[in-house]
Design goal:
Radius of gyration: 26 Å
Structural class: mainly alpha
Number of helices: 25
CATH architecture of the largest domain: Orthogonal Bundle
Number of domains: 2
Strand content: under 5%
Number of strands: 2
Mean pLDDT: 79
Oligomer: single chain
Low-confidence stretches: 1-13
Order of helices and strands: HHHEHHHHHHHHHHEHHHHHHHHHHHH
Strand order of the largest sheet: 1-2
Protein backbone atom coordinates (compact mmCIF):
# COMPACT_ATOMS: atom_id res chain seq x y z
CA UNK A 1 0.00 0.00 0.00
CA UNK A 2 2.70 2.58 0.81
CA UNK A 3 4.42 1.58 -2.42
CA UNK A 4 1.27 2.39 -4.46
CA UNK A 5 0.91 5.71 -2.71
CA UNK A 6 4.50 6.57 -3.54
CA UNK A 7 3.92 5.75 -7.20
CA UNK A 8 0.83 7.98 -7.36
CA UNK A 9 2.68 10.90 -5.75
CA UNK A 10 5.42 10.72 -8.35
CA UNK A 11 3.07 10.44 -11.31
CA UNK A 12 2.37 14.21 -11.61
CA UNK A 13 6.09 14.92 -11.41
CA UNK A 14 6.80 12.41 -14.16
CA UNK A 15 4.02 13.81 -16.33
CA UNK A 16 5.36 17.32 -15.76
CA UNK A 17 8.87 16.23 -16.67
CA UNK A 18 7.63 14.55 -19.84
CA UNK A 19 5.66 17.66 -20.79
CA UNK A 20 8.69 19.87 -20.24
CA UNK A 21 10.79 17.53 -22.36
CA UNK A 22 8.25 17.68 -25.19
CA UNK A 23 8.07 21.48 -25.00
CA UNK A 24 11.87 21.71 -25.01
CA UNK A 25 12.03 19.46 -28.07
CA UNK A 26 9.39 21.52 -29.92
CA UNK A 27 10.85 24.91 -28.97
CA UNK A 28 13.55 25.09 -31.71
CA UNK A 29 10.92 24.29 -34.35
CA UNK A 30 8.65 26.99 -32.94
CA UNK A 31 11.51 29.49 -33.12
CA UNK A 32 12.19 28.45 -36.71
CA UNK A 33 8.55 29.02 -37.58
CA UNK A 34 8.60 32.42 -35.91
CA UNK A 35 11.72 33.43 -37.85
CA UNK A 36 10.05 32.30 -41.09
CA UNK A 37 6.96 34.41 -40.36
CA UNK A 38 9.03 37.45 -39.41
CA UNK A 39 11.13 37.19 -42.57
CA UNK A 40 8.16 36.46 -44.83
CA UNK A 41 7.66 40.12 -45.86
CA UNK A 42 11.33 40.58 -46.69
CA UNK A 43 11.46 37.33 -48.67
CA UNK A 44 8.30 38.27 -50.57
CA UNK A 45 9.68 41.68 -51.49
CA UNK A 46 12.91 40.10 -52.73
CA UNK A 47 11.05 37.52 -54.86
CA UNK A 48 8.65 40.06 -56.35
CA UNK A 49 11.50 42.43 -57.14
CA UNK A 50 13.55 39.66 -58.79
CA UNK A 51 10.62 38.51 -60.92
CA UNK A 52 9.70 42.01 -62.03
CA UNK A 53 10.55 43.05 -65.54
CA UNK A 54 13.54 45.33 -65.80
CA UNK A 55 11.65 47.85 -67.90
CA UNK A 56 9.59 49.01 -64.94
CA UNK A 57 12.60 49.87 -62.84
CA UNK A 58 14.37 51.35 -65.87
CA UNK A 59 11.40 53.61 -66.49
CA UNK A 60 11.30 54.66 -62.85
CA UNK A 61 15.05 55.26 -62.92
CA UNK A 62 14.74 57.51 -65.93
CA UNK A 63 11.77 59.49 -64.61
CA UNK A 64 10.97 59.72 -60.90
CA UNK A 65 13.47 57.53 -59.05
CA UNK A 66 16.31 60.08 -58.75
CA UNK A 67 13.86 62.67 -57.46
CA UNK A 68 12.34 60.21 -54.97
CA UNK A 69 15.74 59.15 -53.64
CA UNK A 70 16.91 62.75 -53.40
CA UNK A 71 13.75 63.77 -51.54
CA UNK A 72 14.01 60.80 -49.18
CA UNK A 73 17.64 61.48 -48.32
CA UNK A 74 16.99 65.20 -47.84
CA UNK A 75 14.01 64.65 -45.55
CA UNK A 76 15.80 61.98 -43.51
CA UNK A 77 18.92 64.11 -43.10
CA UNK A 78 16.98 67.27 -42.31
CA UNK A 79 14.67 65.63 -39.79
CA UNK A 80 17.50 63.75 -38.10
CA UNK A 81 19.72 66.82 -37.85
CA UNK A 82 16.94 69.07 -36.52
CA UNK A 83 15.72 66.48 -34.02
CA UNK A 84 19.34 65.94 -32.87
CA UNK A 85 19.80 69.68 -32.35
CA UNK A 86 16.53 70.18 -30.47
CA UNK A 87 16.78 67.06 -28.33
CA UNK A 88 20.43 67.51 -27.37
CA UNK A 89 20.12 71.22 -26.58
CA UNK A 90 16.99 70.70 -24.47
CA UNK A 91 18.55 67.78 -22.58
CA UNK A 92 21.69 69.81 -21.81
CA UNK A 93 19.73 72.84 -20.62
CA UNK A 94 17.45 70.80 -18.37
CA UNK A 95 20.19 68.54 -16.98
CA UNK A 96 22.80 71.16 -16.09
CA UNK A 97 20.69 74.20 -15.21
CA UNK A 98 17.95 75.18 -12.82
CA UNK A 99 15.45 77.91 -13.62
CA UNK A 100 11.78 78.65 -12.86
CA UNK A 101 9.64 76.09 -14.67
CA UNK A 102 12.48 73.58 -15.20
CA UNK A 103 10.64 70.62 -13.68
CA UNK A 104 7.54 71.38 -15.74
CA UNK A 105 9.33 71.57 -19.08
CA UNK A 106 11.33 68.46 -18.20
CA UNK A 107 8.06 66.55 -17.85
CA UNK A 108 6.51 68.13 -20.93
CA UNK A 109 9.42 67.74 -23.36
CA UNK A 110 8.43 64.12 -24.08
CA UNK A 111 4.76 64.92 -24.78
CA UNK A 112 5.13 65.36 -28.58
CA UNK A 113 5.73 61.60 -28.86
CA UNK A 114 2.01 61.16 -28.14
CA UNK A 115 1.18 62.93 -31.43
CA UNK A 116 1.50 60.65 -34.48
CA UNK A 117 3.27 62.44 -37.31
CA UNK A 118 0.30 62.23 -39.66
CA UNK A 119 -2.02 63.78 -37.06
CA UNK A 120 0.50 66.56 -36.43
CA UNK A 121 0.64 67.22 -40.18
CA UNK A 122 -3.17 67.38 -40.43
CA UNK A 123 -3.36 69.68 -37.40
CA UNK A 124 -0.71 72.08 -38.73
CA UNK A 125 -2.42 72.09 -42.11
CA UNK A 126 -5.61 73.21 -40.38
CA UNK A 127 -3.82 75.74 -38.18
CA UNK A 128 -2.06 77.44 -41.10
CA UNK A 129 -5.07 77.40 -43.43
CA UNK A 130 -6.58 80.80 -44.38
CA UNK A 131 -9.42 80.07 -41.95
CA UNK A 132 -7.18 78.48 -39.31
CA UNK A 133 -6.24 79.64 -35.85
CA UNK A 134 -2.76 80.96 -36.71
CA UNK A 135 -4.20 83.13 -39.47
CA UNK A 136 -6.89 84.41 -37.08
CA UNK A 137 -4.30 85.43 -34.48
CA UNK A 138 -2.14 87.09 -37.13
CA UNK A 139 -5.20 88.91 -38.50
CA UNK A 140 -5.97 90.41 -35.09
CA UNK A 141 -2.39 91.52 -34.58
CA UNK A 142 -1.75 92.82 -38.10
CA UNK A 143 -5.26 94.04 -38.92
CA UNK A 144 -6.01 91.66 -41.81
CA UNK A 145 -9.60 91.94 -42.99
CA UNK A 146 -10.16 88.78 -45.08
CA UNK A 147 -8.78 85.25 -45.13
CA UNK A 148 -6.92 86.13 -48.32
CA UNK A 149 -4.93 88.83 -46.55
CA UNK A 150 -1.39 87.90 -45.55
CA UNK A 151 0.71 84.95 -46.62
CA UNK A 152 1.45 82.21 -44.10
CA UNK A 153 4.08 79.53 -44.83
CA UNK A 154 2.92 76.61 -46.95
CA UNK A 155 3.26 73.54 -44.77
CA UNK A 156 2.83 71.16 -47.72
CA UNK A 157 6.46 70.90 -48.75
CA UNK A 158 9.62 68.99 -47.90
CA UNK A 159 10.63 71.79 -45.53
CA UNK A 160 7.27 71.56 -43.80
CA UNK A 161 7.68 67.80 -43.47
CA UNK A 162 11.11 68.20 -41.85
CA UNK A 163 9.82 70.80 -39.38
CA UNK A 164 6.69 68.85 -38.43
CA UNK A 165 8.35 65.45 -38.08
CA UNK A 166 11.28 66.87 -36.12
CA UNK A 167 8.85 68.63 -33.78
CA UNK A 168 7.16 65.34 -32.81
CA UNK A 169 10.14 62.98 -33.02
CA UNK A 170 12.87 64.95 -31.21
CA UNK A 171 11.90 63.34 -27.83
CA UNK A 172 13.66 60.15 -28.98
CA UNK A 173 16.91 62.11 -28.94
CA UNK A 174 15.95 64.07 -25.82
CA UNK A 175 15.28 60.94 -23.74
CA UNK A 176 18.51 59.27 -24.89
CA UNK A 177 20.61 62.40 -24.35
CA UNK A 178 19.06 63.18 -20.96
CA UNK A 179 19.71 59.66 -19.69
CA UNK A 180 23.29 59.79 -20.98
CA UNK A 181 24.03 63.17 -19.39
CA UNK A 182 22.59 61.99 -16.05
CA UNK A 183 24.96 59.01 -16.06
CA UNK A 184 28.07 61.12 -16.61
CA UNK A 185 30.32 62.03 -13.72
CA UNK A 186 31.15 65.58 -12.68
CA UNK A 187 34.83 64.61 -12.50
CA UNK A 188 35.28 64.52 -16.28
CA UNK A 189 33.95 68.07 -16.67
CA UNK A 190 36.03 69.28 -13.75
CA UNK A 191 39.16 67.99 -15.47
CA UNK A 192 38.16 69.82 -18.66
CA UNK A 193 37.59 73.05 -16.70
CA UNK A 194 40.99 72.77 -15.00
CA UNK A 195 42.54 72.53 -18.47
CA UNK A 196 41.03 75.89 -19.39
CA UNK A 197 37.82 74.86 -21.16
CA UNK A 198 34.78 77.09 -20.87
CA UNK A 199 31.42 75.44 -19.97
CA UNK A 200 30.46 75.39 -23.65
CA UNK A 201 33.83 73.91 -24.68
CA UNK A 202 33.57 71.27 -21.97
CA UNK A 203 30.13 70.36 -23.27
CA UNK A 204 31.26 70.10 -26.90
CA UNK A 205 34.60 68.35 -26.27
CA UNK A 206 33.72 66.10 -23.34
CA UNK A 207 29.99 65.65 -22.66
CA UNK A 208 28.94 65.24 -26.29
CA UNK A 209 31.53 62.53 -27.09
CA UNK A 210 30.49 60.63 -23.95
CA UNK A 211 26.86 60.83 -25.09
CA UNK A 212 27.65 59.90 -28.69
CA UNK A 213 26.26 56.31 -28.58
CA UNK A 214 22.96 57.51 -27.11
CA UNK A 215 22.69 60.39 -29.58
CA UNK A 216 23.41 58.04 -32.50
CA UNK A 217 20.72 55.62 -31.36
CA UNK A 218 18.12 58.36 -30.84
CA UNK A 219 18.83 60.03 -34.18
CA UNK A 220 18.71 56.72 -36.06
CA UNK A 221 15.34 55.98 -34.49
CA UNK A 222 14.08 59.39 -35.64
CA UNK A 223 15.24 58.72 -39.19
CA UNK A 224 13.66 55.26 -39.25
CA UNK A 225 10.35 56.71 -38.08
CA UNK A 226 10.64 59.37 -40.77
CA UNK A 227 11.32 56.80 -43.47
CA UNK A 228 8.36 54.69 -42.34
CA UNK A 229 5.93 57.58 -42.23
CA UNK A 230 3.21 57.50 -44.88
CA UNK A 231 0.26 59.63 -43.79
CA UNK A 232 2.16 62.85 -43.11
CA UNK A 233 4.30 62.60 -46.25
CA UNK A 234 1.35 61.93 -48.53
CA UNK A 235 -0.69 64.75 -47.01
CA UNK A 236 2.24 67.17 -47.30
CA UNK A 237 2.89 66.15 -50.91
CA UNK A 238 6.39 64.76 -50.22
CA UNK A 239 7.11 61.59 -52.23
CA UNK A 240 9.57 59.53 -50.25
CA UNK A 241 10.32 55.87 -50.95
CA UNK A 242 7.53 54.76 -48.61
CA UNK A 243 4.94 56.91 -50.38
CA UNK A 244 6.33 55.85 -53.75
CA UNK A 245 5.75 52.16 -52.92
CA UNK A 246 2.06 52.91 -52.31
CA UNK A 247 1.70 55.08 -55.42
CA UNK A 248 3.55 52.65 -57.70
CA UNK A 249 1.57 49.67 -56.44
CA UNK A 250 -1.97 51.07 -56.32
CA UNK A 251 -1.93 54.14 -58.53
CA UNK A 252 0.54 53.23 -61.26
CA UNK A 253 -0.42 49.54 -61.18
CA UNK A 254 3.17 48.27 -61.16
CA UNK A 255 3.61 45.54 -58.56
CA UNK A 256 7.17 44.79 -59.66
CA UNK A 257 8.16 48.43 -59.53
CA UNK A 258 6.62 48.74 -56.05
CA UNK A 259 8.59 45.70 -54.88
CA UNK A 260 11.83 47.13 -56.25
CA UNK A 261 11.16 50.45 -54.50
CA UNK A 262 10.36 48.55 -51.31
CA UNK A 263 13.68 46.76 -51.64
CA UNK A 264 15.31 50.18 -51.91
CA UNK A 265 13.55 51.27 -48.72
CA UNK A 266 14.89 48.17 -46.96
CA UNK A 267 18.37 49.06 -48.17
CA UNK A 268 17.99 52.52 -46.62
CA UNK A 269 16.88 50.94 -43.33
CA UNK A 270 19.92 48.66 -43.37
CA UNK A 271 22.18 51.62 -44.13
CA UNK A 272 20.75 53.53 -41.16
CA UNK A 273 21.38 50.58 -38.85
CA UNK A 274 24.96 50.23 -40.09
CA UNK A 275 25.61 53.97 -39.71
CA UNK A 276 24.21 53.89 -36.17
CA UNK A 277 26.44 50.98 -35.17
CA UNK A 278 29.49 52.61 -36.72
CA UNK A 279 28.66 55.79 -34.80
CA UNK A 280 28.64 53.81 -31.57
CA UNK A 281 31.59 51.50 -32.15
CA UNK A 282 34.10 53.42 -34.21
CA UNK A 283 35.17 55.36 -31.15
CA UNK A 284 34.64 54.26 -27.59
CA UNK A 285 34.24 56.93 -24.93
CA UNK A 286 33.93 56.22 -21.26
CA UNK A 287 34.84 57.80 -17.96
CA UNK A 288 37.71 56.12 -16.09
CA UNK A 289 37.43 58.06 -12.83
CA UNK A 290 36.03 56.28 -9.80
CA UNK A 291 34.62 59.59 -8.50
CA UNK A 292 31.14 59.18 -9.93
CA UNK A 293 29.17 62.25 -8.89
CA UNK A 294 26.21 63.93 -10.56
CA UNK A 295 26.99 66.77 -12.95
CA UNK A 296 27.03 70.20 -11.33
CA UNK A 297 23.85 72.21 -11.78
CA UNK A 298 24.04 75.92 -12.50
CA UNK A 299 21.33 78.31 -11.28
CA UNK A 300 20.00 80.67 -13.93
CA UNK A 301 18.19 83.89 -13.30
CA UNK A 302 16.90 86.95 -15.10
CA UNK A 303 17.28 86.98 -18.87
CA UNK A 304 19.19 83.68 -18.95
CA UNK A 305 16.38 81.90 -17.08
CA UNK A 306 13.79 83.39 -19.41
CA UNK A 307 15.75 82.31 -22.49
CA UNK A 308 16.24 78.79 -21.14
CA UNK A 309 12.53 78.46 -20.35
CA UNK A 310 11.52 79.83 -23.75
CA UNK A 311 13.99 77.61 -25.58
CA UNK A 312 12.67 74.48 -23.87
CA UNK A 313 9.01 75.51 -24.15
CA UNK A 314 9.11 76.27 -27.88
CA UNK A 315 9.44 72.63 -29.09
CA UNK A 316 6.71 71.62 -26.63
CA UNK A 317 4.34 74.23 -28.02
CA UNK A 318 5.12 73.39 -31.65
CA UNK A 319 5.19 69.62 -31.25
CA UNK A 320 2.32 69.13 -28.79
CA UNK A 321 0.58 72.38 -27.83
CA UNK A 322 -0.58 73.56 -31.25
CA UNK A 323 -1.70 70.15 -32.59
CA UNK A 324 -3.50 69.31 -29.34
CA UNK A 325 -5.24 72.70 -29.32
CA UNK A 326 -6.38 72.28 -32.93
CA UNK A 327 -7.71 68.79 -32.20
CA UNK A 328 -9.52 69.85 -29.03
CA UNK A 329 -11.09 72.89 -30.72
CA UNK A 330 -12.39 70.93 -33.71
CA UNK A 331 -13.54 68.05 -31.52
CA UNK A 332 -15.63 70.35 -29.32
CA UNK A 333 -17.13 72.16 -32.31
CA UNK A 334 -18.13 68.95 -34.09
CA UNK A 335 -18.87 66.74 -31.10
CA UNK A 336 -22.52 66.09 -32.03
CA UNK A 337 -21.78 65.15 -35.64
CA UNK A 338 -18.70 63.12 -34.74
CA UNK A 339 -20.42 60.71 -32.35
CA UNK A 340 -21.92 58.51 -35.03
CA UNK A 341 -22.25 54.77 -35.44
CA UNK A 342 -19.24 54.78 -37.76
CA UNK A 343 -17.14 56.43 -35.04
CA UNK A 344 -18.04 53.82 -32.44
CA UNK A 345 -17.44 51.00 -34.93
CA UNK A 346 -14.01 52.44 -35.68
CA UNK A 347 -13.24 52.50 -31.96
CA UNK A 348 -14.39 48.90 -31.61
CA UNK A 349 -12.27 47.77 -34.56
CA UNK A 350 -9.23 49.61 -33.23
CA UNK A 351 -9.62 48.14 -29.75
CA UNK A 352 -10.10 44.62 -31.14
CA UNK A 353 -7.00 44.72 -33.32
CA UNK A 354 -4.80 46.41 -30.74
CA UNK A 355 -5.89 44.03 -27.97
CA UNK A 356 -5.27 40.89 -30.04
CA UNK A 357 -1.86 42.13 -31.20
CA UNK A 358 -0.83 43.22 -27.69
CA UNK A 359 -1.82 39.85 -26.20
CA UNK A 360 0.12 37.89 -28.84
CA UNK A 361 3.17 40.13 -28.57
CA UNK A 362 3.28 39.88 -24.79
CA UNK A 363 2.98 36.07 -24.82
CA UNK A 364 5.69 35.66 -27.46
CA UNK A 365 7.94 38.19 -25.72
CA UNK A 366 7.57 36.44 -22.35
CA UNK A 367 8.54 33.08 -23.83
CA UNK A 368 11.49 34.45 -25.79
CA UNK A 369 12.80 36.62 -23.00
CA UNK A 370 12.58 33.79 -20.48
CA UNK A 371 14.23 31.36 -22.87
CA UNK A 372 17.10 33.76 -23.30
CA UNK A 373 17.43 34.05 -19.51
CA UNK A 374 17.05 30.33 -18.80
CA UNK A 375 19.19 28.86 -21.58
CA UNK A 376 20.52 31.30 -24.19
CA UNK A 377 21.30 29.72 -27.55
CA UNK A 378 22.42 31.07 -30.94
CA UNK A 379 18.93 30.35 -32.32
CA UNK A 380 17.32 32.53 -29.66
CA UNK A 381 19.83 35.32 -30.36
CA UNK A 382 19.08 35.03 -34.09
CA UNK A 383 15.34 35.24 -33.41
CA UNK A 384 15.74 38.42 -31.39
CA UNK A 385 17.85 39.97 -34.16
CA UNK A 386 15.23 39.12 -36.77
CA UNK A 387 12.55 40.68 -34.56
CA UNK A 388 14.38 44.01 -34.82
CA UNK A 389 14.06 43.78 -38.62
CA UNK A 390 10.27 43.72 -38.30
CA UNK A 391 10.27 46.91 -36.27
CA UNK A 392 12.35 48.68 -38.93
CA UNK A 393 10.02 47.75 -41.82
CA UNK A 394 7.94 50.68 -43.14
CA UNK A 395 4.22 49.97 -43.05
CA UNK A 396 3.73 50.00 -46.82
CA UNK A 397 6.62 47.57 -47.29
CA UNK A 398 5.23 45.30 -44.59
CA UNK A 399 1.77 45.31 -46.21
CA UNK A 400 3.16 44.51 -49.64
CA UNK A 401 5.28 41.70 -48.22
CA UNK A 402 2.38 40.06 -46.37
CA UNK A 403 -0.57 40.43 -48.71
CA UNK A 404 0.65 38.39 -51.65
CA UNK A 405 1.92 35.23 -49.92
CA UNK A 406 -1.13 35.04 -47.65
CA UNK A 407 -3.51 35.71 -50.55
CA UNK A 408 -1.71 33.00 -52.54
CA UNK A 409 -2.14 30.57 -49.64
CA UNK A 410 -5.86 31.42 -49.37
CA UNK A 411 -6.44 30.98 -53.09
CA UNK A 412 -4.56 27.68 -53.17
CA UNK A 413 -6.47 26.33 -50.17
CA UNK A 414 -9.78 27.46 -51.64
CA UNK A 415 -9.03 25.76 -54.97
CA UNK A 416 -8.02 22.56 -53.15
CA UNK A 417 -11.17 22.50 -51.02
CA UNK A 418 -13.37 23.15 -54.05
CA UNK A 419 -11.77 20.30 -55.96
CA UNK A 420 -11.90 17.73 -53.15
CA UNK A 421 -14.99 18.70 -51.14
CA UNK A 422 -16.88 21.20 -53.26
CA UNK A 423 -16.51 23.83 -50.49
CA UNK A 424 -15.17 27.36 -50.66
CA UNK A 425 -12.97 28.50 -47.77
CA UNK A 426 -12.69 32.09 -49.00
CA UNK A 427 -9.92 34.39 -47.84
CA UNK A 428 -9.17 33.01 -44.40
CA UNK A 429 -5.94 34.92 -43.75
CA UNK A 430 -5.71 37.75 -46.26
CA UNK A 431 -9.37 38.81 -46.18
CA UNK A 432 -9.93 39.20 -42.44
CA UNK A 433 -8.44 40.75 -39.36
CA UNK A 434 -5.77 38.07 -38.94
CA UNK A 435 -3.49 39.62 -41.56
CA UNK A 436 -3.72 42.94 -39.73
CA UNK A 437 -2.94 41.32 -36.39
CA UNK A 438 0.04 39.54 -37.97
CA UNK A 439 1.31 42.82 -39.41
CA UNK A 440 0.96 44.50 -36.03
CA UNK A 441 2.81 41.68 -34.27
CA UNK A 442 5.70 41.80 -36.74
CA UNK A 443 5.86 45.59 -36.40
CA UNK A 444 5.66 45.86 -32.59
CA UNK A 445 7.10 42.64 -31.19
CA UNK A 446 10.48 44.33 -30.72
CA UNK A 447 8.93 46.91 -28.39
CA UNK A 448 7.30 44.24 -26.23
CA UNK A 449 10.50 42.20 -26.12
CA UNK A 450 12.50 45.25 -25.05
CA UNK A 451 10.12 45.97 -22.17
CA UNK A 452 10.22 42.34 -20.99
CA UNK A 453 14.00 42.11 -21.27
CA UNK A 454 14.30 45.26 -19.16
CA UNK A 455 11.97 43.80 -16.53
CA UNK A 456 13.73 40.45 -16.40
CA UNK A 457 17.14 42.09 -16.11
CA UNK A 458 16.06 43.50 -12.74
CA UNK A 459 15.36 40.04 -11.31
CA UNK A 460 18.34 38.46 -9.58
CA UNK A 461 19.49 35.06 -10.90
CA UNK A 462 19.47 33.96 -7.26
CA UNK A 463 15.67 33.78 -7.50
CA UNK A 464 15.99 31.10 -10.15
CA UNK A 465 18.50 29.11 -8.14
CA UNK A 466 16.39 29.28 -4.97
CA UNK A 467 13.26 28.16 -6.80
CA UNK A 468 15.06 25.26 -8.47
CA UNK A 469 16.40 24.04 -5.12
CA UNK A 470 12.76 23.81 -3.97
CA UNK A 471 12.03 21.38 -6.79
CA UNK A 472 10.38 23.73 -9.30
CA UNK A 473 11.02 23.13 -12.97
CA UNK A 474 11.65 25.95 -15.46
CA UNK A 475 7.99 26.48 -16.36
CA UNK A 476 6.87 26.60 -12.73
CA UNK A 477 9.68 29.02 -11.88
CA UNK A 478 8.40 31.35 -14.55
CA UNK A 479 4.75 30.95 -13.57
CA UNK A 480 5.12 31.12 -9.78
CA UNK A 481 8.14 33.38 -9.32
CA UNK A 482 8.87 35.51 -12.35
CA UNK A 483 5.47 36.43 -13.75
CA UNK A 484 4.13 37.91 -10.47
CA UNK A 485 7.27 40.06 -10.22
CA UNK A 486 7.07 41.05 -13.88
CA UNK A 487 3.55 42.48 -13.79
CA UNK A 488 4.78 46.10 -14.23
CA UNK A 489 6.98 45.14 -17.20
CA UNK A 490 4.20 43.06 -18.75
CA UNK A 491 1.77 45.94 -18.34
CA UNK A 492 4.24 48.38 -19.89
CA UNK A 493 4.85 46.05 -22.85
CA UNK A 494 1.11 45.60 -23.43
CA UNK A 495 0.46 49.35 -23.27
CA UNK A 496 3.28 50.23 -25.68
CA UNK A 497 2.15 47.63 -28.24
CA UNK A 498 -1.53 48.55 -27.81
CA UNK A 499 -0.92 52.24 -28.47
CA UNK A 500 1.44 51.59 -31.40
CA UNK A 501 -1.23 49.41 -33.02
CA UNK A 502 -3.92 51.98 -32.30
CA UNK A 503 -2.14 54.66 -34.33
CA UNK A 504 -0.70 52.42 -37.09
CA UNK A 505 -1.84 53.79 -40.46
CA UNK A 506 -0.13 52.49 -43.66
CA UNK A 507 -0.37 48.75 -42.97
CA UNK A 508 -3.94 49.15 -41.71
CA UNK A 509 -4.91 51.18 -44.74
CA UNK A 510 -3.58 48.57 -47.17
CA UNK A 511 -4.54 45.34 -45.39
CA UNK A 512 -7.89 46.07 -43.72
CA UNK A 513 -10.95 44.13 -44.87
CA UNK A 514 -13.57 45.90 -46.94
CA UNK A 515 -15.65 48.37 -44.94
CA UNK A 516 -13.47 47.84 -41.87
CA UNK A 517 -12.32 51.23 -40.58
CA UNK A 518 -10.19 52.02 -37.55
CA UNK A 519 -9.60 55.36 -35.86
CA UNK A 520 -6.41 55.86 -37.88
CA UNK A 521 -8.01 55.12 -41.27
CA UNK A 522 -11.02 57.28 -40.39
CA UNK A 523 -8.75 60.23 -39.65
CA UNK A 524 -6.79 59.59 -42.85
CA UNK A 525 -9.93 59.42 -45.00
CA UNK A 526 -11.31 62.64 -43.54
CA UNK A 527 -8.02 64.48 -44.10
CA UNK A 528 -7.85 63.21 -47.69
CA UNK A 529 -11.29 64.76 -48.29
CA UNK A 530 -10.23 68.02 -46.59
CA UNK A 531 -12.72 67.27 -43.80
CA UNK A 532 -10.28 66.69 -40.98
CA UNK A 533 -12.33 68.69 -38.48
CA UNK A 534 -14.99 65.96 -38.56
CA UNK A 535 -12.44 63.32 -37.53
CA UNK A 536 -10.69 65.44 -34.90
CA UNK A 537 -12.38 63.51 -32.09
CA UNK A 538 -10.92 60.24 -33.35
CA UNK A 539 -7.49 61.87 -33.68
CA UNK A 540 -7.82 63.22 -30.15
CA UNK A 541 -8.63 59.70 -28.90
CA UNK A 542 -5.44 58.37 -30.53
CA UNK A 543 -3.41 61.16 -28.93
CA UNK A 544 -5.01 60.52 -25.54
CA UNK A 545 -4.09 56.84 -25.73
CA UNK A 546 -0.58 57.79 -26.83
CA UNK A 547 -0.08 59.86 -23.70
CA UNK A 548 -0.08 56.74 -21.52
CA UNK A 549 3.26 55.20 -22.66
CA UNK A 550 4.76 58.67 -23.00
CA UNK A 551 3.99 59.48 -19.37
CA UNK A 552 5.35 56.07 -18.33
CA UNK A 553 8.56 56.87 -20.19
CA UNK A 554 8.77 60.26 -18.52
CA UNK A 555 8.20 58.69 -15.09
CA UNK A 556 11.01 56.19 -15.69
CA UNK A 557 13.32 59.00 -16.78
CA UNK A 558 12.51 61.06 -13.67
CA UNK A 559 13.53 58.14 -11.43
CA UNK A 560 17.13 58.61 -12.43
CA UNK A 561 19.17 60.76 -10.07
CA UNK A 562 19.33 64.42 -10.99
Amino acid sequence: MPHSIQMRSHAPVNRGARLNARLAAMFPYALGGLIAVLLLPVATIAVLAARAEGGGLLHLGQTVLPRIIGTTVAVLAGTGALALLIGTAAAWIVTLHTFPGRDLVDRALVLPLAIPAYIAAYAWGEALAPTGGVHAVAARILGWQTPQDGALPDVRSATGAVLILASVLYPYVYVAARASFLQQSAAVLEVARTLGCSPLEAFVRVALPLARPALAAGTTLVMMETLGDFGAMQYLGVETLTVAVYATWLQRGSLGGAAQLALGALAVVLALVVIERIGRQRQSFHATSTRVRPLPVRDLGGVQAALALAGCALPIVLGFGVPALVLATHAMRHLDTALTGAFWRAIGHSLLLATLAAALCVVIAIVLSYARRFKPTPLIATTQTVIQVGYALPGTVLALGLLFPLAGFDNGLDALMRRWFGLSTGLLLSGGVMILVLAYVIRTLAAALGALDAGWSRLSPNLDAAARTLGLDAIRVMRRVHLPLLKPAIGAAAIVVFVDCLKELPATLLLRPFNFDTLATTVYAAAALEQFEGAALGALAIVGAGLVPVLLMQKALMRQPT
